[in-house]
Automatic annotation (TrEMBL):
Keywords: DNA-binding. Residues 6-40 form the Response regulatory domain. It comes from the Bacteria. One of its GO terms (molecular function) is DNA binding. It comes from Streptomyces shenzhenensis. SUPFAM superfamilies: CheY-like (SSF52172). This is DNA-binding response regulator. One of its GO terms (biological process) is phosphorelay signal transduction system.
Length: 40
């Protein structure tokens, strides 16, 4: 049984944030649950 890793991406550059989300989305056991431009 594998559990899903849930990730919140915090990155101010939208292109980098979207690229990371796309790459992580290719993995079966990783789910990007939120994306934010600021971490504070």
């Amino acid at each position: 049984m594998t559990s899903t890793i849930r990730v919140l991406l915090a990155e101010d550059q939208s292109m980098v944030r979207e690229a990371l989300a796309a790459l992580l989305g290719l993995e079966d056991d990783i789910e990007v649950v939120a994306q934010v431009a600021r971490g504070d």
